[in-house]
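PROTEIN DATA CARD
Card holder: Putative membrane protein
Chain length: 292
Origin: Herbinix luporum
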Amino acid sequence: MRKRSSMELSSLIIFLSIISIILQFAAYLFFTSPFIILGISSVVVILSIHILLEQSLTYKACTLYTILTLFISTIITLLIYFGADTKLLPFTKSLLGILALNWLIPVIHCFIRHMFDYGSRIEHFNSFYRNVNIIFLLFYITVLIYISFGQKTYPRIYPIFDSVNFTPFWTSATQIENYINHMIPFSDIFIYFISRILIYMPYGYYGILLLRNTSKFIWLIYLLLLPSTIELIQYLIIPGRCDIDDLIYGLIGGAIGALLFYLTNAIYRWVSGKNFLSKGSKARYSNKPLYF
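Structure generated from the sequence above:
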């Protein structure tokens, strides 16, 4: 299959992005079930990515499509959120799901396509993966700062106490006790634990991706670096938010993120015979440096 010209490809990317947005928000307008909305959104993105890969033979087209759809859907979501009184398009969590899918589906689809490497040879996967993850990192850093230093960020889940807590698991035990005494629902405890672990999983994932060939000691120092830095800043500016539990859960979350990368790499290597994002040979146990 011949590669399309730059003009043809640009037009196709814009066309598919607009069609994707129209169909996604039409589903949001006409359906109330989040499963239907997110299902339609997923199918639209999958088909668009497939068409782009077949027509362009490069993952760079998927990068541009992902950026464009994310940008447009984010603008629309913000307009709906700040105009939440409108009856036509009220704000719901399904909008956040659409945003997540507009990033996640291209990443998963291109990962699977590159791993199996079927059909036409498609180029520039590493640059695609790097660029779409830069987008995610910008979002991740924003959320991490907001959660860590926002004065009124989910007070039931991220409470502000009168002083610093240096007693391990004291806050966790307090949450459990409050649940036993029917002072808080189980969902608060679940979110309390899960959110503190999930927020550091990307940190661990990207850390092992970049520091894969370093010693375990360096890796441990890295895992502790971000949680310790955040807790230190909290100690200086918001002492009531400084909690040693967050440091412990940050370490656990980072370790789980690292394991997630190892699992991803193991699956990729088992299927393709080479390390994920490696620049080198197809040797099953290649030690070539990673490109990211």
